[in-house]
Amino acid sequence: MTQFIYILISLAVASFDVDDSNNTIVSHSEQDVYIILKANDSLLFERSFNKCETQYLNQLIAEDFEFYHDISGVETSKEAFIKSMKNGICNPDNTTKSRRELVPGTLEVFPLKNNGKIYGALQNGVHKFYETTNGEEVAGSIAKFSHLWILEDDEWLLQRVISYDHKLQSNNQNDSIKVSEAILDSYVGKYEAKSTGLVIISRTETGLHLNAGGMNTDINAISETVFAHNQAPLTFEFVKDASDNITKFIVRENNIIVEEAIKKQ
Question: 181-263: which CATH number, 2.40.128, 2.40.50, 1.10.3470, 2.60.120?
Answer without folding.
Answer: 2.40.128
